Amino acid sequence: MGFKQFLQRRSLKSKDDKRTPAAELTLRESFYPICLVTVLFFLWGFSYGLLDTLNKHFQNTLGISRARSSGLQAAYFGAYPLAALGHANWILRHYGYRATFIWGLFLYGVGSLIAWPCILARSFAGFCVAIFIIGNGLGSLETAANPYITVCGPPKYAEIRINVSHTFNGIGTVIAPVLGSYVFFVFDEETALRNVQWVYLAIAIFVFILAIAFWLSVIPEITDADMAFQANESHANADDQPFWKQYRLFHAAFSQFCYVGAQVAIAGYFINYVDDVLPWNPNDSMAYRSGIGSKYLAGAQAAFALGRPCGIFLMRYFRPRWIFLGFMSMCVVFVAPSITQRGFTGMSMLYVTLFFESICFPTIVALGMRGLGRHTKRGSGWIVGGVIGGAVVPPLTGVTGDLHGTPMSMVVPLCFFVAALTYPLALNFVPSYRDIADAFSDTTIGIEGGHAGVTDEENGVVGGIFGDEKAVEVEHLR
């Protein structure tokens, strides 16, 4: 292969109006691209888990209030709609998934490098700016990765597929607090801040290398025409209506806003909650208590990570919408007692809540994009943009915690969980929601038959690195 052909195969521009075999990828054909994109899920799980630990770390080292420390979450999640509805969504619709992945990794790396001088200067505001840039990068990655995992492969297994990928997100959220407990809370303030610098430098190096790997890899670009084909073949097409009439999509985005806000608030103030409710020895230092709280947070995130395989197992035998309704309902049931209970009883209620939170985010993404067809890429931006709830609910929770204590502040995420519950209720009991979800669950696209009607006119590659001869060819329609 010549150098010119090598560059042509790595073009970041795709034609969105042509259907490709990517609409009917089998499990085998989708395995490599899904594995590559799943690495991204670990990245933002790690970043999110690190953020929850830094929330308490900066309260201790910089002497700021709980409400002010929520500025980290506000900067991080406030960037998501800017990416999901703005620059990242524009790149996704005009260039494609791979270009959006590379753009998101670039921003993530730049933000991580900017964090270095801000930490040196002990500037909380500057670090929030760095987190805002990182949030734009991660928002770009989520804008592309969540819909990509959902549509890359047989539609019948979309909910299972995205929950499997998000399992690695959960692993990242477990590792980050464990790292924080040993790196941030067992040293003096100056050493701990230097450790934060090295962590972000390592992140920057890794994501830049990963961006190069995405440029070298050739993965299938799933076009609007592909999604329209899937919606039509499954008889669940809702894309005959204008985008602004896709009320199911906007309901899913609202549910995502409420759910993510509640999830982030609970995780962000979990260490504060442990600090308030556990029976501590009066001689225990704040750093010691925060370090123990960080370990308990890692345990809670482990419960979150464990919930995903349990949910995936149940989805294999029951309709995903039923499992989604059950898990979201349990979030409401178990977070409520944490408001009044103290000690390990109250903390255990949050452990169980995190277990049931596990499948909610990815399942909202998968079910919310059902039947959107040609509106899929645009619609994914709205659902991912709902993540801005993580910038709204934690400050409300922080203010309530400053006034009435962290346990009482759990009433805020409880209210948002109740609002998020309206979407799974509609999915199960409103026919216009339920029928579209079930049509995709019953389709055999990507399971039976090959790539019907596809010719050899324009070639690409599925699942290849360096474009070798063993890669699976992708041809465009005439």
Automatic annotation (TrEMBL):
It is found in: Cell inner membrane. Coiled coil: none annotated. The lineage of its organism: Eukaryota, Fungi, Dikarya, Ascomycota, Pezizomycotina. SUPFAM superfamilies: MFS general substrate transporter. The chain crosses the membrane at residues 31-51, 71-92, 99-117, 123-145, 166-187, 199-219, 249-271, 322-340, 346-367, 379-398, 410-430. Its main location: membrane. This is L-fucose-proton symporter. It comes from Pseudomassariella vexata. GO terms for cellular component: plasma membrane.
